[in-house]
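Sequence, please.
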């Protein structure tokens, strides 16, 4: 495989993180269920009205809805913290793969991972995700490839080195 060079955009980093870590997409689903439950309670009159509960009722209602907003936005907040807190995530990445393993290079690191370290790989419309554990993966944007033939070559290499090994 030819050497790939790319720099993640925040949108790619966010989408890839959501795809890579299951808990990051489960939380918004649970958040939506939480909002549905709050709406059910609201429409069945289980919430105290603002006039009946006074300032405590208003604060309770507001707190319950804010918990839902934070819960829904947790994946965005989590990836934003990593994005803002780690400048190396925004650097240029170089990577390439061969029969020996997968290599990445940035301005501060040079890493070689041999194929037996990978447990699986996944593919979306925009990414290859190469997993070393359930929650740790290398995220390769497909836009980094020169053409579709390189994408196919990489897919075949991953299949041969990871899937057929099992």
């Amino acid at each position: 495989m030819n050497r790939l060079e790319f720099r993640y955009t925040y949108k790619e980093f966010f989408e890839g993180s959501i795809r890579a870590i299951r808990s990051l997409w489960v939380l918004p689903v649970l958040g939506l269920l939480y909002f549905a439950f709050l709406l059910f309670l609201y429409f069945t009159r289980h919430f105290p009205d603002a006039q009946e509960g006074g300032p405590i009722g208003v604060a309770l209602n507001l707190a319950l809805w804010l918990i839902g907003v934070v819960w829904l936005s947790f994946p965005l907040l989590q990836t934003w913290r990593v994005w803002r807190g780690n400048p190396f995530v925004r650097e240029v990445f170089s990577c390439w793969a061969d029969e020996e393993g997968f290599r990445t290079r940035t301005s501060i690191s040079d890493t070689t991972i041999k194929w037996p370290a990978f447990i699986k790989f996944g593919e979306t419309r925009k990414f290859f995700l190469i997993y070393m554990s359930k929650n740790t993966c290398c995220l390769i944007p497909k836009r980094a490839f020169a053409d579709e033939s390189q994408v196919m070559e990489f897919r075949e290499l991953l299949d041969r080195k990871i899937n057929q090994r099992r």
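The chain has a mean pLDDT of 84.
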